[in-house]
Amino acid sequence: MPRLSAEQRHTVRLTLNGRAVEAQAEPRMLLTDFLRHELGATGTHVGCEHGICGACTVEIDGSPARACLTLAVQADGATIRTVEGLAPEPGRLSVLQEAFRRHHALQCGFCTAGILMSLDNYLRRQPEPSEDDLREFLGGHICRCTGYVPILAAAMDAARRLRETPSDA
Amino acid sequence: MKPARFDYIRAADIAEAHEALSEHGNDARVIAGGQTLMPMLSMRLVRPKVVVDIMHLPALRKIEASGNEIRVGAGVRQAELLAWPGLAENLPLLKAALPWVGHAQTRSRGTVCGSVAHADPSAEIPLSLLALDGAVELSSRRGRRRVKAADFFTGMMSTARAENELIEAVFMPKRQANTGYAFQEYGRRHGDFAIVACAAVVAATNVRLAVGGVADTPALRDFGALDGKALDDALNAFAWELDARDDLHATARYRRELVRRMGRATIEEARSCRA
Fold first, then answer.
1. What is the reported pLDDT for B66?
2. What's the topology of domain A95-164?
3. CA distance B129 to A76
4. In terms of CATH architecture, what is A10-85?
5. Nearest Cβ partner for A26 among B5, B41, B189
6. Distance from the A55 Cα atom to the nearest Cα atom in chain B, whole angstroms
7. CB contact under 8 A, B2 and A30
8. Which phi and psi (to 5°) does residue B6 adopt?
9. Nearest residue in A to B37, CA atom
10. pLDDT tens digits for A43-99?
11. Do B191 and A53 contact (CB within 8 A), yes or no?
12. What's B7-53's CATH class?
């Protein structure tokens, strides 16, 4: 990929939720818009568009990151997971998603996709989080509905269940 | 909020990055992790003609020990330095400061040198670099130079980097014997911009405090062997000299009080971990 002209659209290839995909993007296109408008993966939400709110958090090459702070062309060749990749099969939620439902950890749901992607990554790296760890980690997200308490409860519950039956992730 | 149009160059080697910078000068911006540049592009606070991506250069993605220093390349992410096994032994100040940089979700992408390039007056990494007497390695098609942190930060978000230069690495001196390091910060929430951040380095014959979030650049003061009330008085004078201003987040008076109290607390913490 040498110099990409501002005026033109260029092919970006990446792995999205385990599937090789490609679409066209101008250099200035954000990864959020690329996912939503070019690949149709509208599960990733667009909030503040400057990295503060965390709604657009996805997993890029194994780490949680803001899709709005990444250019689509930068993600060429990357492996990306979004909220669409969490459920193990149609009609069944992941352990974490199920815990969110049980604990009413969302109301309007706008921030939820980003929080799920952060927590999914975190709980795989840190299966026994303390509530303080989780609080600090959730500091990277803004939720205006729940007051965070049910989100914390859901995350602690999911962590416990994942420790008991890790294969259900 | 979308960036204005720009050409994108994924540099294949450092020479190509140098060439783009010398051709386009101020119309070019280097992107590494993008965690400060992307918001500025989206808010159109900067409108470069060319964005040069340096994250595909393996030469820049190294953390190396060289002599008494650690060299952190321009492609090293904050999370990578935080996870570096040698961090606690070699750079205890960074070990303490890095968790305060943004959030885990931005440290995963943001680079150490990117924060230095951005030179936000409240940022933790520039403050730490200054407190340690670190340096910045700048390179261009014409050559290479090294600028001490104290000379590099020239004003609010402005640095000594010339428009054709690439920040290729930062150098941070390794932990000195018989010296203690500490970092403390106050913000409304963890991950917010610091209202005041303090880095202290306490050696046998010198007490040093660097303060961020108050003046236009991180500021440093050496207090020699002062202690007790004399040190408090000197901290008070330092706090006044920083010319704090009122803003949305805190009053000038509150910032001075934080420098006096949190500054002293940080010094005492560093003193207590002198090894």
1. 87
2. DNA polymerase; domain 1 (1.10.150)
3. 33
4. Roll (3.10)
5. B5
6. 11
7. yes
8. -150, 155
9. A69
10. 999 999 999 999 999 999 999 999 999 999 999 999 999 999 999 999 999 999 999
11. no
12. alpha beta
The identity of residue B188, as a single letter, is R
CATH classification (class only), B58-173: alpha beta
Shortest Cα distance, chain A CAs vs residue B239, angstroms: 30
Average pLDDT of span B143-153: 98
Inter-chain touch B103–A54, beta carbons under 8 Å? yes
Query: What residues of chain A lie within 8 A of the CB of B5, using their CB?
Result: 6-7, 26-28
Is B263 in contact with B186 (CB distance < 8 Å)? no
- Considering only CB atoms, B34 lies closest to which of A2, A5, A69, namely A69
Residue A74 to residue B5, Cβ atoms within 8 A: no
Whether the per-residue pLDDT at A167 is higher than 80: the answer is no
The pairing of strands B196-202 and B180-186 is antiparallel
pLDDT above 90 as % of chain B: 96
| Range B263-270 average pLDDT | 98
- Mark out the alpha helices in B50-172 (DSSP H runs): 78-82, 87-90, 92-97, 104-107, 112-118, 124-131, 149-152
Question: Which secondary structure element, helix H or strand E, spans residue B153, and what is its range?
Answer: strand B153-155
Mean pLDDT along residues A1-7: 85
CA distance B251 to B265: 21
List beta partners, residue B171. B71, B135
- Tell me how far apart the alpha carbons of residues B149 and B161 are, in angstroms, rounded to a whole number: 11
Q: Is A61 helix (H, G, I), strand (E, B) or coil?
A: coil
Structure-token pair, residue B242: 């920083």
Cα–Cα distance for residue pair A160/A63, rounded to 1 Å: 22
The one-letter amino acid code at A44 reads: T
- Give the torsion sign (CA, B41, B45, B49, B51): negative
**Of how many residues is chain A composed?**
169
Kindly tell me if the per-residue pLDDT of B151 is higher than 60.
Answer: yes
d(CA A151, CA B139): 47
The mean pLDDT value of chain A amounts to 95
Write down the domain spans for chain B: 7-53, 58-173, 184-272
Backbone angles phi, psi at B26, to 5 degrees: -70, -15
Q: Summarize the confidence of residues B129-157 as an average pLDDT.
A: 97
pLDDT at B275: 62
Q: How much is the pTM?
A: 0.95
| Interface pTM, i.e. ipTM | 0.94
Q: Which CATH superfamily is domain B184-272 in?
A: CO dehydrogenase flavoprotein, C-terminal domain (3.30.390.50)
Helix (H) or strand (E) holding A161: helix A149-164
One-letter identity of residue A55: A
Question: pLDDT at residue A168 above 60?
Answer: no
